[in-house]
Predict the structure of Fatty acid hydroxylase domain-containing protein.
Amino acid sequence: MRRAHETADGALWFKRLKHGLWDRDMSFERTGLQAIALVLLSVAALFAELSYHHNGLGLFDTLHAKSVVIFYNVEALILSSVDASLASWIIAAAIFRIVFGMLVGVADMVFYKKIMGRPFDWEALINTAIVNFVFLSTALFTFMNPSVQEVLRHYVRLIERVPTLVNLNGAVALAVACFIADFCYYWSHRWCHKIRFFWNLGHIHHHRSRNLSQLTQVVDPQSSLLDVAGGRAFVLLLLPLLTKLFSLDFRGSGWMFVVLLILDAWTNPSHSVVLYHAENKFRVLRLFRSILITPAVHFTHHSREQAHNISDGSNFGARLSLWDRLFGTYVEPPSYIPDAGLFDEKSDYCRNPLRFIFQPYIRMLEELRGNKVRHWPAILFGPASYEPPVPATCKY
């Protein structure tokens, strides 16, 4: 009798623990001690996002940097290889890129209610800051592992055996480098939306936000791994391979470096409601959509409206709209800011850091356990829209 009572107490204790840590969404009252806790946590989250995710901590390092990434996924420029005065302008533009991104994040927070008609989501900011810290730290420590570094070094040695077929230099080389980088990103991003393994075990995190803004966008875990690995990880393995086919000496590109840095500063805060609103207001900003993935173009990629769901999504490019236009996945941003999030109305937006991080993995394990082995290949590597015969009980 006592054992049965202890078992019942243990089950009740576990149920309460699960409810507190897993089932319960983060929510604070706007009065009393909970309001104070919300303010303190929001300030801490804002500091973490601006300093860590938006690279505020990198401002000082940029002043003394020996190299600068000019364009997303393009090899960093060694500053000693260009004229000293030009290098100073490049550093200034790189600092501007960081500061502009931070200011856009703050502007989203301040003007969110005026633009969107609803209050800024402070709980989402706290949730996002915690999740981003976990993802970015995991990526960093993963590639500090000696075994992982050795694998990457081995891959680099293999790439070095690839013959260089075309020698380019100057502005042409820089332009080709940008096109190759964006081409590889386009397909890796599109595969993340097409293939269940990449979607369910990573990229879905980046789309799990109903109240999207520059401060409430969770980093893509796979892209984080890619960034830390210097372009040598995940499905962008194609990037160093294609780049090796060309000898891309873009040191002589001159002021094109500064122009690209400024354009990159504009396109980088791509989840901003303020910049989307600015595009709607000023026609000159909309003209850039013909060549660039502007903030409004990428925000439309996060839209949960079926009209924007061309091929399990749309607007997959990182910086250039060329590949989306060429492969038929470009969607012109609407004149209003669309609702962001997942397409399924019953989706779980996981306003709980623990559930946010682990729910996709638990969901896929549940699918594997509940279905016969012959269905496992489709569960793992089938289309993102595939539903197994015995679906998981929890929604996306």
Remarks:
- The first helix runs from residue 2 to 23.
